[in-house]
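Replying to the earlier thread about multi-chain prediction with a worked example.

Input:
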Amino acid sequence: MAASAGIVVTGTEVLTGRVADRNGPWLAEALRAQGVDVGSVVVVGDRPEDLRAALAFLAAGNDLVITTGGLGPTADDLTAAEVGAFQGRPSELDAELEQRIAAVVAALSARRGWDTEPESAAAGIAKQALVPAGATVLEPVGTAPGLVVPVADGRSGPPVLVLPGPPVELQGMWPAALAAEPVRRALAGATELRQRTLRLWRTPESELAATLRRVDDQLTGLEVTTCLRDGELEIVTRYEPDADDAYGRLVAAVTADFAGTLFSDGPTVDELVARALDERGWTVAVGESETGGLVTARLTEPAGASRRVLGGVAAYANSAKEQLLDVPPATLVDGGAVSPAVARALAEGARVRFGADVGIGVTGVAGPGGGTPEKPVGTVHLAVVGPDGALAYSDRLRGDRAAVRGRTGTLAVHLLRQLLLGGPPA
Amino acid sequence: MAASAGIVVTGTEVLTGRVADRNGPWLAEALRAQGVDVGSVVVVGDRPEDLRAALAFLAAGNDLVITTGGLGPTADDLTAAEVGAFQGRPSELDAELEQRIAAVVAALSARRGWDTEPESAAAGIAKQALVPAGATVLEPVGTAPGLVVPVADGRSGPPVLVLPGPPVELQGMWPAALAAEPVRRALAGATELRQRTLRLWRTPESELAATLRRVDDQLTGLEVTTCLRDGELEIVTRYEPDADDAYGRLVAAVTADFAGTLFSDGPTVDELVARALDERGWTVAVGESETGGLVTARLTEPAGASRRVLGGVAAYANSAKEQLLDVPPATLVDGGAVSPAVARALAEGARVRFGADVGIGVTGVAGPGGGTPEKPVGTVHLAVVGPDGALAYSDRLRGDRAAVRGRTGTLAVHLLRQLLLGGPPA
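Result:
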């Protein structure tokens, strides 16, 4: 690897988990696509000393340091000034930039109907127009400009690329950031870096470990990482092009040992299912109880979902299961609302009521309440009904309410995959 | 602040965003509750040199370093051995621990129907039973034990607490970790640290900045951070108990300046809405198009949701809007499926069909396709209908498909809050 970058994500709201960071992972992947390696992402709160420590840590071993966030108008937004100080370049007001930001804020205030006192608006704008001496300004996508701040003359160290926190602004500014001369120079040594993924369904990590140990001496040049999550075992491999043969040997070994559970050489199960539905021109509908809308929301996440997903009914109440999805009252009484028969009836009801080719039915106990000795928390029943047949699956899942709901969603998508594509059972 | 900790989150899958980290934020909050300050979280991939660099960075300025993840049976799980080496304590096989892990794996394999070769299972178990000399073992919650690894005799530095990656295992092990003698000693200086939150709806950050500047000299001892997200402006303040009066002055200033938009002194809008529904004994149902199940899924996230949420219909297809939610065909023709009238009809249909006290209706264009000059991507219409009246709201949102869907969900919950509690309009 001939070029590397370190990322600082700022914001106490990220550090404490009130906001999930989307920028670190996005940047790591965008840099990987440029052949730039990212070894670590440091998340810091809004304290200057923590930001300075993170900058020093990452500047020591990288060709470029990138910061995200902390460019707003409030006093806790201190990234630009701190980066300037760190690089030995005190900040100055850029009067032309100030005017451009003022124009953006005025347009935004008009659209939003804000009635900010001119004085306080001006103070915020002036703060956002402070630029470290000698820095390159990246035009704002929102109200905050980005910056490329080289180290002061006579000192050594990588440039720091300062990007705004809102993902839409950061991503909108990225092409200009990559094109900026100091960034191009810093990343000049980047070489092609490939990343490939294999996905197995329900293979224990220890079995894969045995395979990897067996072929270990044939995998020189590969950086292999594995991750088990919700029953899916992902094998992600990064390598430079000259290790292409080694990657072929890895694929051959995994295919030989796990032909029955290897379900993807790249796409996610959601992507495979969407493609398979589109290829057949099939539509799908959902009747779900335990997951409360989550399965439908997951199926409608990708762009273009409306051509393959007709909709779903989240039916907590038994009356809703009966009246909106035609679940027979006797079925609800016989085995209770959490039973394989109800999952099947939910799938059939959704299929008929929406007029879809495939119906998915989900019921279960997400917890933390509602469990019984016969049907403990984590009990789930799923069914998928298509034009040519049906599949059912039951399980008892571990984890808290959010984990049980999320895992049930993964099970539902895998059961749908099995109906559409065959392959390893859900 | 008299005790501080640094957190290392390991795993290439986290670094590259394939898995969202839940452990860093959870630990930061759990430590805060103990009065322990966390200045930064470092996310590293599965490369030993990156882990070592992160350990060195955090050991320099903290009383305790915590690692999460990298304790599995595969070769890329290297945390325990690397931490041992970093602390000057080479790892040795703990034969009794190996037997206990073997028993757990055997039980798990039986339950899951795994058919792992004994040899490869044994290799994985032996790897997980390697313990740095002199470390304290925390009993496994899953298959991986945790560790507390003090620095080698004669060297100085904080102990490293090694925790497993799966959140259910990490959280299950936390009480034992806090009780371990080396951890207690490291955190002995912890003092009480309060955290309070104020939430404003649709206040521009620049207005709040003006208020904070005005009272700045009265806020000594407070660490104030603000965060604007989806129209909500959060003010999170941390302080030691002797700054309680200063916090009172901050609350007074914000209340005086923003009485019309301050909607919470702590709880999230989702919590406020759940409480208000429970207090009245009201139920709610959702008819949603653009958000595809997301609004229902969000309302059913909290434990106990089934007593207040009867369900929802995600109706992408117009036929589903008509047949499941009684949206009049003429309404769909007149203004199109994305219109205030359809939002209102979806809300009324959901209310009637589920027999709920309150109905929520949502329609819009999430994008990236489907926009027109009259109804561009981001156009959303919402309605809430209750026993005593109805509210409507329309907007044009920025951002990509995921952002538009997510923000629409926030708008829906705020519109519901307004119906239930009055206060600032959505």
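The CA atoms of residues 84 and 355 of chain A lie 61 Å apart.

Feel free to reuse this layout for your own posts.
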